Recover the amino acids of this structure.
């Protein structure tokens, strides 16, 4: 009997790739998606969505739509979220409603069903860590710092400094044991989503896994959405003949995982019925600096446009964070193998077919208008 998987947010960047991945492996896929205009222009279904996906249009907070969408499903992947760290800091109510309150309704409906799904996979985020794990070479100790002091940022000293000796610290792979220290409304929302899904799943005997996504990139990212992933934002700028805008000095690092490997990790978590009530990292385990991303994109596109390094900071920004994948490898047997350059080739092939509208300057002005840069 064919298993049906419900994917909330299933018409989006990650959701549509997950649908393709599941369909190719014999699953039936149902998507529940609000088709938000910021992501889907005009609120229209995207052309890339496989016609075999049974698309239901609606928010997860629409109880009637959700009840119908849940009928006969074996498992659920909860991806639906409003995404964007910067925007979440001035659209606080909208983000919290879409991410936390909508998830609360989703879980309430799920918990009251007689035919509960056999599996729930929830999309969490590396942003809940805040800063990653660090080590001071002089003190020979790992540290979990919080935000860099405002005085340090105003002095343009970007790297983390040891709390004991004030010496430089080196970033280390960040494990799931590092306590969360969310630094934006979005990251608080994702922490709440993760904890709510795990708590309700445990209470109602729905085997649940929360996956802490690191920086996903690849085709179908909303290039005209200035609050999407950094690779897509930079690509949209370059395709419009404008320089990518980089905060600080550009040497801050992130962990980039190609969407094809991310969805493979989701499917693995969905299928491993012996792994439940765990929060797991889902990244590549390899850091790359933001300026390297911008330069690699420009080189691949054959453009001489250099990034604009502002030397400014954004409130709540973190310096370094990349995944320690040991727990995920041990429990799921999952390892990301694709290199950043290999993933970039796939993204670029798709980008050349797109004509994005660049809204980056307007997004930057919004941050400045709300005094969220310095």
């Amino acid at each position: 009997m064919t298993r049906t998987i419900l994917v909330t947010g299933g018409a989006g960047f990650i959701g549509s790739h997950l649908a393709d991945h599941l369909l190719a492996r014999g699953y039936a896929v149902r998507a529940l998606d609000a088709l938000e205009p910021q992501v889907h222009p005009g609120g229209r279904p995207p052309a890339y969505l496989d016609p075999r996906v049974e698309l239901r249009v609606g928010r997860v907070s629409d109880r009637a739509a959700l009840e119908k969408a849940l009928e006969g499903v074996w498992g659920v992947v909860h991806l639906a979220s409003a995404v964007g760290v910067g925007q979440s800091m001035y659209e606080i109510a909208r983000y919290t409603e879409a991410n936390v309150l909508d998830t609360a309704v989703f879980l309430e409906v799920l918990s009251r069903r007689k035919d509960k799904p056999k599996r729930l996979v929830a999309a969490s985020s590396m942003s809940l860590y805040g800063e990653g794990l660090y080590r001071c070479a002089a003190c020979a100790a790992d540290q979990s710092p919080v935000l860099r002091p405002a005085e340090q940022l105003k002095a343009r000293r970007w790297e983390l400094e040891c709390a004991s000796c004030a010496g430089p610290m080196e970033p280390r792979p960040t494990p799931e044991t590092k306590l969360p220290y969310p630094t934006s409304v979005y990251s608080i929302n994702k922490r709440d989503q993760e904890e709510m899904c795990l708590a309700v799943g445990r209470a109602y005997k729905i085997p649940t896994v929360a996956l802490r996504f690191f920086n996903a990139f690849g085709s179908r990212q909303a290039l005209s959405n200035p609050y999407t992933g950094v690779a897509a934002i930079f690509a949209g700028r370059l395709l419009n003949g404008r320089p990518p805008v980089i905060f600080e000095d550009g040497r801050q690092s992130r962990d980039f995982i190609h969407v094809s490997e991310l969805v493979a990790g989701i499917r693995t978590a969905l299928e491993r019925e012996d792994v439940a009530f765990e929060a797991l990292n889902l990244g590549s385990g390899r850091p790359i600096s933001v300026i390297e991303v911008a330069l690699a994109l420009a080189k691949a596109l054959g453009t001489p446009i250099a990034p604009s390094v502002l030397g400014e900071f954004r409130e709540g920004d973190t310096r370094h964070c990349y995944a320690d994948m040991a727990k995920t490898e041990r429990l799921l047997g999952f390892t990301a193998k694709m290199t950043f350059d290999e993933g970039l080739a796939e993204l670029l092939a798709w980008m050349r077919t797109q004509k994005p509208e660049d809204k980056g300057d307007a997004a930057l002005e919004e941050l400045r208008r709300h005094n969220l840069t310095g």
Q: What stands out?
A: Residues 153 and 313 are 7 Å apart (CA to CA). The mean pLDDT is 93. The domain at 4-132+174-369 is CATH 3.40.50.720 (Rossmann fold).
